[in-house]
Amino acid sequence: MLVDAILDKKGSDIILLDMQNQIIFADYFLICNGDSDRQIQALVNGIAEEGKREGSETPLNIEGSADDGWMLIDYGHIVVHVFSPVRR
For residue 32, what are the β-bridge partners? Predict the structure, then answer.
């Protein structure tokens, strides 16, 4: 579902990392790229909307700034990282 939101907004280099045996604060990291500040913000907005619509989930926190080339959406069990290619 979240991957579909990324694909809808033309995000690239999507990776899903299983972190269950590595860290205690999340089960998965979902990482992708956005090619511009506007695309990074659109990706974050699209992911948050999709989470609410399909999974009835509201992010616990959204951090970072599209201007800085990195944003994070924390759902608790999954953390989504949206990077510019340079920051990644």
Answer: 82
